[in-house]
Amino acid sequence: MVSDTKQQTVPHNLQKSPSTVTHKDSLSVVQKMYECFNRGDMEAIRQDVFAPDIVWHLPGRHPLAGTKHGADEVLAFFGELGKAGIRVDLIGLDQFHEDTVVEVHHGYTQTPVNGASLDALNCTHYQIVNGKIQNVQVYLSDQHGADNFFWAAFSLKAIPDRLS
């Protein structure tokens, strides 16, 4: 019997880092973030869930897209999601390595905003370092739909205010 074993290369920013976090702890920190988000407890997220220098990547070509640096920026982003009436239900959660958690969630609005609604299954990759979420990459199942929703919900200011 011939075995074809391939060496898997892990990107530098996703390589294991020294940590004493257990499998259960890494999963529970992501679960706690969802629980806190859905009840609006941003202070618990800041204190118990996020590393102070968290980096959150959200794809797209809309006003909320891009990379957020630090807990303040990510929590401001969460606040905007709340203003748009976005709900997030955790569907599935698993762990790969000691510090890598991947989840699937349902993101949706209960009431359309300016005629636009959001209803999609998405996937998010979390890197957990020392029991806190350090690095996040969101993958959207309907990028076009998300872009349309966020443009409807978050229009740009008028040109004089936008350029000042």
Structural overview:
- By secondary structure, the chain is α+β, with helices and mostly antiparallel strands.
- The chain has one domain: Nuclear Transport Factor 2, Chain: A, CATH 3.10.450.
- Helix content is 34%, strand content 33%.
- A six-stranded mixed sheet has the order 2-1-6-5-4-3.
- Strand 1 and strand 2 form a beta hairpin.
- Helix 1 runs antiparallel to helix 2.
- It starts with 22 loop residues before the first helix and ends with a helix.
Summarize the structure.
This protein is of the alpha+beta class and about 160 residues long. The protein has a single domain, classed as Nuclear Transport Factor 2, Chain: A (Roll), CATH 3.10.450.
Annotate the secondary structure layout.
Blueprint: H1 23-39, H2 42-49, E1 50-58, E2 66-69, H3 70-83, E3 86-96, E4 100-109, E5 119-129, E6 132-140, H4 143-153, H5 159-163
Parallel strand pairs: 1-6
Antiparallel strand pairs: 1-2, 3-4, 4-5, 5-6
Helix pairs in contact: 1-2
Q: What is the second-level CATH architecture? A: Roll
Assembly state: single chain
Q: How far apart, in Å, are the first and last alpha carbons?
A: 69 Å
Q: How does the helix and strand content classify structurally?
A: alpha+beta
> How would you sum up the global shape?
globular
CATH topology: Nuclear Transport Factor 2, Chain: A
Helix content: 25-40%
Number of DSSP strand runs: 6
The H/E string reads: HHEEHEEEEHH
CATH class: Alpha Beta
Estimate nothing, just give the exact number of structural domains.
1
The neighbouring-strand order within the major sheet is 2-1-6-5-4-3
Alpha plus pi helix count: 5
Largest sheet: 6 strands, mixed
